[in-house]
Design brief:
- It is built from 14 helices and five strands.
- The chain is of the alpha/beta class.
- Strand 4 (206-211), helix 12 (216-220) and strand 5 form a beta-alpha-beta unit.
- The longest helix is centred in the middle third of the chain and has 22 residues, at 93-114.
- The chain has a five-stranded parallel β-sheet with strand order 2-1-3-4-5, sandwiched between helices.
- It has two domains: 5-83, Orthogonal Bundle (Arc Repressor Mutant, subunit A); 115-276, Glucose-6-phosphate isomerase like protein, domain 1 (Rossmann fold, 3-Layer(aba) Sandwich), CATH 3.40.50.
- It has helices at 5-12, 18-29, 31-35, 39-46, 50-59, 65-77, 93-114, 117-128, 140-152, 165-173, 191-203, 216-220, 240-260, 263-274; strands spanning 132-136, 159-162, 179-184, 206-211, 223-226.
- One of its GO terms (biological process) is carbohydrate derivative metabolic process.
- Pfam families: HTH_6, SIS.
- This is Transcriptional regulator.
Length: 285
């Protein structure tokens, strides 16, 4: 497997039967315990039958439970100290807060190591010379789009952010060559966003996709920028993909600032000075 076993589990989650998903979720929550279990123990803890455990292992591309445990043990031995965050009703504040931080750190390290630097360079180059930059996203990705607009307008770029499907559709229809869209999606499967991306490409704009590598959106954009974060959708699972997308936007913004040269530094200093009158002095008692 090119990805970690945890990544494979999350990728395959939606393709597994419901009973097999119970096994996958138990493994994600309790990897150290599973290594020491017999197949009967895992079946009992996951509340499934032993044949279900075998089917789960085969769905993951392994001959059986022993091979699965071997792969799991090898992965844990490589120092993957951060497990997928899950929360039990009895967890203390310290336990679930550490779990959230650890899970997010693991995700960010994995995204950092997997980012396509060549694709990043092409995206930065396109954004640096764009006539107009539009950021599209829905839900949590809409918040990322708004944050991106806040960063990029300070770089002397005409930019907007839209999280409404009608506004996105109208925006995409008015684009032309030299314009850039950044379409942001954790799943890459949002129907309206895919439609807006298609419209923008047809209009001649460059469309950058911050989305999973093997997703419908990635196949429609001009320049896919894969951010692969597989998340369980159970209650209490944090949206670490949002943090990963925010950091990727930061990378793009810094790259564009470097690309556009020293004049941007003067612009950013002027913006900083303009905020002075809005802040209370530290000397005020």
């Amino acid at each position: 497997m090119s990805r970690s076993l945890f990544d494979e589990l999350r990728v395959h989650m939606d393709r597994l039967r419901r009973s097999e998903q119970k096994v996958a979720r138990f493994v994600l929550r309790n990897p150290e315990e599973v290594i020491l279990m017999r197949i009967t123990d895992l079946a009992s803890e996951a509340q499934v039958s032993e044949p279900t455990v075998v089917r789960f292992c085969r769905a993951m591309g392994m001959a059986g439970f022993q091979e699965f445990k071997l792969k799991l043990a090898q992965m844990m031995a490589k120092g993957s100290q951060y497990a997928q965050f899950t929360m039990n009703d009895g967890d203390s504040v310290a336990e679930f807060s550490h779990g959230i931080f650890d899970g997010t750190i693991e995700t960010l390290e994995r995204v950092r190591d997997c980012l396509d630097n060549e694709a990043l360079g092409k995206a930065i180059a396109a954004l640096a010379v764009a006539n107009r930059v539009e950021f599209y996203g829905y839900g949590a990705s809409g918040i990322v789009a708004a944050d991106a607009q806040h960063k990029f307008f300070r770089l002397q770029i005409h930019t907007s952010a839209y999280s409404d499907p009608h506004l996105q559709a109208m925006s995409a229809a008015t684009l032309k060559a030299g314009d850039v869209v950044v379409a942001i999606s954790q799943t890459g499967r949002t129907r309206a966003l895919i439609a807006s991306a298609k419209t923008a490409v047809k209009a001649g704009a460059t469309v950058i996709g911050l989305c999973p590598s093997d997703s419908p959106l990635a196949r429609e954009v001009t320049l896919p920028l894969p951010v692969d974060v597989q998340e369980d959708t159970e209650v209490y699972i944090p949206m670490t993909s949002r943090i990963a997308h925010l950091l990727t936007i930061d990378v793009l913004a810094v790259g564009v600032a470097k690309n556009r040269g020293p004049q941007i530094t003067d612009q950013l200093k002027a913006i900083k000075r303009s905020l002075g009158s809005l802040r209370v002095s530290n000397n005020v008692s």
